[in-house]
Amino acid sequence: MSLRFSAAALIAATVALLAGPALARCSKNLVERLGQGTHFASLDLAQLAAGGDASPNRAVITFVGHASYQIDTPEGVRAITDYNGVNGFGRNPDIVTMNNAHSTHFTDEPEDGITFILKGWPSEPGETEAKHDVRLKDMRVWNVPTNARDWGGSSARINGNSIFIFSIGDLCIAHLGHLHHRLTKEHLEQIGRIDVLMVPIDGSFTMGVPFMADVIQSIDPKIVLPMHYWGKYQLDRFVGLMAPLDADFVWPDKRSIEVVKEDLPEKLTVIAVAGEGGG
C-alpha cells in the first residue's frame, strides 16, 4: 500500500481537521521530550517574545492571586484565569476566563481592551452550557463544562463550572476552576493530554483533596500548580496526599515560571508558584 499523498490531499485533510470540533483538545504527545526540568522565569517577557528559547511550545506562567494565573506566550498574547476584576486587573490581558459565577472568580466589569471574555457557565438566555473555542495568534482557548454545587442547597448547578484549556503550540495548560466532582470518561476525552494542570486544593469550597488527587491521576499531567488555598497547612496537606503518586515538589522563590514543552519533567512535579497562597 502506498503511503504517498498529494499536496492537495494533505491540505484538504488538514482543513477538515481544523474545521472539526473534535480538534478542540490536546493531542497525545506530538513533540518528543528532549530534556528535563522547568525554567524559573526572570519575568523578562520581552526576551520570551524575542525568542530567547527557540521552541514555540512555551509560556511564562505567573500566579496573580487566589485562582488566577497569568499566561504569556511567545507572540505576546496574555491570558488571565479566573479573572475577577482584582487579581490581574491592569495587566492588559487579551483573553480572560471566568470559571465559576462566584464573586472571587468573575466580574461584570472587566477592564477595557480585552479581546475575549469567556464565562464558564450558561450566562445567556437559553444556554444550557458555555462552549468556547477561540484563537488569538499562538494561543487557543476552549472549555469543558462540569457541574458545580448550589450553595443555596444540596442540588447541583448543571454545567456551572468550566475547565479551561490553553494551548500554546503543543504546550497544553488546563485550569480546573471550581471543580466539585470527579471527571467522567467523556470529560477526560474532551480534555485530552495536559502538560500543566492548575488545581484548587482548599479541600472544602471545591472538592476534597483526596478526590482531587484522583482527578490529577486521571488527567496525568507533568506539572501541577496548586491554587485556591490560604496557607502552608493546606499546601502541606496536599503534598502529603500526593505522596502515593510519587510526585516531586518544588517551592520556587518567585511567582513566575517559564514552562517549555520539550523540557517538561519526566516525573510528576508539583510547583508551589502560589507560595503560601492568598491574594
Question: Helices, strands, pairings?
Answer:
Elements: H1 7-19, H2 45-50, E1 58-65, E2 68-72, E3 78-80, E4 95-98, E5 116-119, E6 133-136, E7 139-149, E8 156-168, E9 171-175, H3 185-191, E10 196-200, H4 209-219, E11 223-227, H5 232-241, E12 248-250, E13 256-260, E14 269-271
Parallel strand pairs: 3-4, 4-5, 9-10, 10-11, 11-14, 12-14
Antiparallel strand pairs: 1-2, 1-13, 2-3, 6-7, 7-8, 8-9
The biggest beta sheet reads: 8 strands, mixed
- The name of the CATH topology is Metallo-beta-lactamase, Chain A
Instruction: Determine the structural class based on helices, strands and strand pairing.
Output: alpha/beta
User: Unreliable runs, pLDDT <50, ≥5 residues?
Assistant: 1-22, 30-37, 149-155
Order of helices and strands: HHEEEEEEEEEHEHEHEEE
> What would you report as the Rg, rounded to the nearest angstrom?
18 Å
Termini separation? 60 Å
**What is the 3D shape?**
globular
Number of domain modules:
1
Number of helices: 5
Return the average pLDDT rounded to an integer. 77
Helix content: 10-25%
The count of DSSP E runs of length 2 or more, i.e. the number of strands, is 14
Strand content: 25-35%
Q: Mind telling me which CATH architecture this is?
A: 4-Layer Sandwich
Task: Report the top-level CATH class.
Answer: Alpha Beta
CATH superfamily heading: Ribonuclease Z/Hydroxyacylglutathione hydrolase-like
Q: Give the strand order of the largest sheet, numbering strands 1, 2, ... along the chain.
A: 6-7-8-9-10-11-14-12
